[in-house]
Amino acid sequence: MSETVTLPEFKPADYKTDLKPVWCAGCGDFGALTGLYRALTELQVKPWETVVVSGIGCSSRLPGYVETYGFNGVHGRALTIAAGVKVSRPDLKVIAVGGDGDGLAIGGNHFMHAARRNLDIAYFMMDNEIYGLTKGQTAPTTPAGDKTKSTHYGNPEPAVDPCELAISFGATWVGRAFSGDLKGTVELMVKALSHRGFAFLNVMSPCVTWRGDDQFKTLKAKQRQLPEDHDPTSRPAALAYTREKEFVTTGVLYEVAEPSFLDRLAAVKVTALAGKPAPTVADVIRTFQPSF
Ligand SMILES: Cc1ncc(C[n+]2csc(CCOP(=O)(O)OP(=O)(O)O)c2C)c(N)n1
Ligand code: SF4
Ligand SMILES: [Mg+2]
């Protein structure tokens, strides 16, 4: 006779590891991490069914602080590793995390392909508009004109908007959060984690060390919620909240239901095998080597 085991309810502390975050006091990534603990709690996510994957950067240290499976990979490759994990273990919940440099500079190419494939991954980008770990160089999201450690006379390059890119690349869920707004961050993480397909959350997350206290104050002053009548299924309506100068609009900018990568893959498998017996290893080898 089988026995039903009732799991105890997970609390935010259950998702904490013994590692103490080494982020600078006041770093916005603390808000993102706390948001993730609470979102996992709200969804009662099972740690043993979850993998948090990152690249390299201050923000990419996050998997070490979450009591799930984790992978702190190489710079810019969070999404490639996350994709491999998801395709080989579709039963696992896969969360990719990292910085704006990791995801938009060296990893920009992977961002495009993960989004267009609609891979079943939630991707949380902690965007401080700077390379924090390597001591304050400009990133693709650093506003034009800003003085940084690598642009003493002002950044000569225009910045990109990660949400605009995600929508254009084909992501089916795109949101923006501010890590200083914990309640809003939790709500958006819960929604992103519940989406089937590629969910991208741009978490504005200040770097007190290389962007100063002003970054937090500016983000807080500029933050506003999406209006209630916003239509998240409309691409033009969503794009209207990207490249904003006066505001940082938070909420679900874009959300559509499309078959995910795994749905499409399952459909291909059914078509390929329809009416035929499953191929043997010899059959597969003969496809490439007819004389076998
Ligand atoms: C292949 C490679 N190139 C460059 C680096 C150096 N590097 C490490 S982290 C980083 C940028 C980090 O910025 P971001 O991803 O925004 O993370 P943050 O530290 O701001 O959270 C760079 C350039 C590296 N580790 N590996
Ligand atoms: S350098 Fe910036 S991003 Fe890195 S831990 Fe310190 S405040 Fe956070
Ligand atoms: Mg950064």
Description:
With 292 residues, this protein is α/β, with parallel strands linked by helices. The chain has two domains: 12-257, Rossmann fold, CATH 3.40.50; 259-292, no CATH class. Helices cover 34% and strands 15% of the residues. It is built from ten helices and eight strands. An eight-stranded mixed sheet has the order 2-1-3-4-6-5-8-7, sandwiched between helices. Helix 8 links the parallel strand 7 (223-225) and strand 8. Helix 3 packs across helix 4 (108-116). The longest helix has 15 residues, at 29-43. The radius of gyration is 21 Å and the shape is globular. The model has no long low-confidence stretch (mean pLDDT 95). The protein binds thiamine diphosphate (TPP), iron/sulfur cluster and magnesium ion. Thiamine diphosphate binds at residues 56-59, 75, 98-102, 106, 126, 128, 130-134, 139.
Strand content: 15-25%
Say what the CATH topology of the largest domain is.
Rossmann fold
Question: What is the total domain count?
Answer: 2
Mean of residue pLDDT values: 95
Instruction: Please state the second-level CATH architecture of the largest domain.
Output: 3-Layer(aba) Sandwich
Strand order of the largest sheet: 2-1-3-4-6-5-8-7
CA-based shape: globular
The CATH class name of the largest domain reads Alpha Beta
Q: Which molecules are bound besides the chains?
A: thiamine diphosphate, iron/sulfur cluster, magnesium ion
